[in-house]
């Protein structure tokens, strides 16, 4: 097996911090000045524009959810530190594959920020497949599919995307935030965004509060982006 590249070992703690909230690891890393005062302010620290696709099998059962998460330009620049593309200025899937692996590994503890209920009962996902990173227009987009442990036929499927510690702020894309792939013709989806600007309630809370939050916390649920799929 080929050993882990030096830049990959250096980058992993940074991604773990930004995604899995190991904030102290950031100290001393190259590019910390880019984030500067933001790290000392209230949450969130990373912004993601999300598009999701609910995937159906030919028999009408839901098989999983396909995500495309576009990170803000500051995080994208920070995450690319130390990566040397084969073509100058052009980051291919191959160049970004180790970084994609780090992202996916870091997200596991947080259930990939994805929660679903089918007809009111919790739906369980397995580990992601078909994951890769794309770099375009100066931002990174993480693509991945979350398969359901068992395909489900349901009249209602409730989907929520949020970070329980609100280190990452998710916002559904303005255009086609949630779509259905292969769904029965009568199925429809309604999207619900957070009622208020996500940052407002956090301005009075300091980092000491957020440092106590973990993957089992529920603070970020109030900022969830939600979708309800209904199939008669």
Keyword list:
five-stranded antiparallel β-sheet, six-stranded mixed β-sheet, 5 helices, 19% helix, disordered N terminus, 232 residues, 11 strands
Q: Could you explain the architecture of this structure?
A:
With 232 residues, the chain is α+β, with helices and mostly antiparallel strands. The protein has one domain (6-230). Helix content is 19%, strand content 33%. The protein has five helices and eleven strands. The strands form two sheets. Strands 1, 2, 5, 6, 8 and 9 form a six-stranded mixed beta sheet that branches. Mean pLDDT is 81; it is low at 1-11 and 19-41.
Number of strands: 11
* Largest sheet composition: 6 strands, mixed
Number of separate domains: 1
CA distance, first residue to last residue: 51 Å
Characterize the overall form. Answer: globular
Number of helices: 5
Beta-sheet strand percentage? 25-35%
Q: Helix proportion of residues, in percent?
A: 10-25%
List low-pLDDT spans.
1-11, 19-41
Whole-number mean pLDDT: 81
H/E order of the elements? HHEEHHEEEEEEEEHE
Structural class: alpha+beta
**Whole-number radius of gyration?**
18 Å
Topology at a glance:
Blueprint: H1 6-20, H2 32-35, E1 46-56, E2 62-71, H3 73-79, H4 93-107, E3 114-118, E4 121-123, E5 129-136, E6 139-152, E7 156-161, E8 168-172, E9 178-181, E10 188-192, H5 207-210, E11 225-230
Parallel strand pairs: 1-8, 1-9
Antiparallel strand pairs: 1-2, 2-6, 3-4, 3-7, 5-6, 7-11, 10-11
């Amino acid at each position: 097996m080929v050993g882990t590249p030096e830049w990959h070992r250096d980058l992993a703690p940074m991604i773990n911090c930004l995604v899995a909230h190991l904030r102290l690891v950031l100290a001393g890393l190259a590019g910390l000045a880019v984030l500067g005062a933001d790290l000392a302010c209230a949450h969130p620290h990373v912004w993601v524009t999300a598009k999701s696709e609910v995937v159906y099998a030919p028999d009408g059962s839901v098989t999983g959810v396909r995500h495309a998460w576009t990170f803000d330009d500051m995080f994208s620049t920070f995450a690319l530190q130390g990566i040397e593309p084969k073509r100058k200025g052009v980051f291919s899937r191959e160049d970004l594959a180790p970084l994609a692996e780090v992202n996916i590994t870091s997200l596991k503890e947080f259930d990939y920020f994805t929660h679903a209920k089918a007809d009111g009962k919790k739906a369980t996902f397995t580990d992601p497949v078909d994951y890769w990173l794309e770099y375009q227009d100066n931002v990174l987009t993480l693509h991945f599919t979350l398969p359901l442990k068992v395909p489900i036929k349901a009249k209602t499927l409730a989907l929520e995307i949020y970070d329980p510690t609100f280190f990452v702020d998710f916002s559904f894309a303005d255009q086609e935030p949630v779509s259905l792939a292969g769904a029965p013709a009568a199925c429809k989806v309604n999207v619900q965004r957070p009622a208020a600007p996500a940052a407002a309630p956090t301005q009075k809370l300091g980092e000491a509060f957020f440092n106590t939050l973990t993957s089992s916390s529920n603070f970020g649920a109030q900022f969830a982006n939600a979708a309800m799929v209904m199939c008669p």
